[in-house]
Amino acid sequence: MLTVEKAKHRTVEVDGVKLFYREAGRRNGPGVLLLHGQPSSSYSFREVIGPLASVARVVAPDLPGFGFTEAPGDYEYTFEAMARTIDALTRQIGLERFFLYIHDFGAPVAYYLALARPDRVLGLIIQNGNAHEEGLGPDWEANKAYWADPTPQNRAKLPEWLNFEGVRHTYVGDIPDRLQPLFAPEGWHLDWERMSRPGLVEIQFRIFADYGRYVARFPEISAYHHEHQPPALLIWGRHDPYFELEEVLAYARELDRLDMHIYDGAHLLLETHHRECVALMREFILDAQPS
Q1: Residues 160, 168: contact at Cβ < 8 Å?
Q2: Could you tell me if 101 and 34 are in contact, meaning their C-beta atoms sit under 8 angstroms apart?
Q3: Residues whose CB falls within 8 Å of the CB of residue 279, separated by 6 or more in sequence, listed in order
């Protein structure tokens, strides 16, 4: 029978940030650092933290600008700054080495950590997290134009997504009708409740604006993959409205130790396939641990 440990919910001050995180598992176990995407929070890992805790020490923070984490008004809100904050958290709580969960806007944070200290990374768990040009389809052209020239005119050409309907779209937008009833509405209502607080929408836009710097680092990430060859597990929802399926093959070209599983799921795969994914993640963690 699978052992499921209850997560503990904590808030600590690191790097000037009151950072909320969920934690479970043995302190001497291999670390797993679960980094969520936009517009979510560590709540998106609620179904996998307990089952993973039987084989690892699991830490799932709310990134600055998300969930229940509170950052000062002068916080930078770039992925590099968020990576510094998460790095400070790992050092404060003694999480020395870890598997990195690569997902959506958590991917830039994860790769900042990996490229800065490859020796700390035990492996990669890639879940609808983009790191190659192949994953950015035609819908990203307006975004790329804004990143290249962030004028008010180019901002006006961006689609409206930082609103309730945009948050809901992240869960159930542009997916087959058969999948939509599988998504509980609490997720997008909680995300929007957090995002709709004063000033948070503009903070979310600042974070989005910095994603262009991450895209510019794709060649560095490819070099990291080729040189360090971290063991990797890829779990992917094929009905992703944001990242093209060609992204999967881009990872496969670079990573020699890559186990790939593509599901009839969406961008937020854990909302519908958490049981399948956590079983694969547990096996991967056990197999990839250094002897």
Answers
A1: no
A2: yes
A3: none
Contact 50, 4 (CB under 8 A): yes
- Give CA–CA dist 146/154, Å, rounded: 5
Q: Look over the chain and give the mean of its residue pLDDT values, rounded to a whole number.
A: 96
Quote the distance between the C-alpha of residue 116 and its chain's center.
Answer: 18
Which of the following is catalytic: 103, 132, 225, 267?
Answer: 267
| pLDDT surpassing 80 at residue 289 | no
Share of the chain above pLDDT 70, in %: 98
| Token representation of residue 173 | 């937008």
Domains of the chain in start order, with CATH, are 8-288 (3.40.50.1820)
Cα–Cα dist 10/136, whole Å: 36
pLDDT of residue 5: 80
Q: Is 267 assigned a catalytic role? A: yes
- C-alpha span between 287 and 291 (Å, rounded): 10
Q: Residue 209 above 80 pLDDT?
A: yes
Identify the bridge partners of residue 204 per DSSP, sorted by sequence position.
none
pLDDT band at 277 (very low <50, low <70, confident <90, very high): very high
What are the structure tokens assigned to 201, written together?
């929408």
Phi, psi for residue 18 in degrees, rounded to 5:
-85, 95
Exposed / middle / buried, residue 138 (Cβ in 10 Å: 0-12, 13-18, 19+): exposed
Average pLDDT of the residues in 203-208: 98
